[in-house]
Amino acid sequence: MNAVQIQFWVLLIGTIFAWYNTSLEIIDWRKGKKCKRGCPVNAKNPFLSPCIYGALFFTAAFILNLLIK
């Protein structure tokens, strides 16, 4: 496996993981529950938490990886 393939898989898995965690936070927020995962516990809105920024960053990096190949 070369470096480009490794980069692809790391970014793909990171993107899936980031959006999975973010979606769980949004689902809990919609149900009126508190944040129970890696995001700050006192975050009132998951769209302003580090989870959403990480998911967006990984998604952008993954898309750029696909375009540069």
Strand content: under 5%
Q: Give the terminus-to-terminus CA distance.
A: 15 Å
Number of strands: 0
Mean pLDDT figure: 86
Radius of gyration, taken over Cα atoms and rounded to an integer in Å: 14 Å
Described by the principal axes of the CA atoms, the overall outline is elongated
The assigned structural class equals mainly alpha
Order of helices and strands: HH
Low-confidence stretches: none
Structurally, the number of domains stands at 1
Number of helical segments with 4 or more residues = 2
Helix content: 55-70%
Largest sheet: none
Description of the molecule:
- With 69 residues, the chain is mainly alpha-helical.
- It has one domain.
- The two termini are 15 Å apart.
- The protein is built from 2 helices and no strands.
Annotation keywords:
68% helix; 2 helices; elongated; single chain; 69 residues; mainly alpha
Question: Which SSEs are present, and which pair or pack?
Answer:
Layout: H1 3-30, H2 50-68
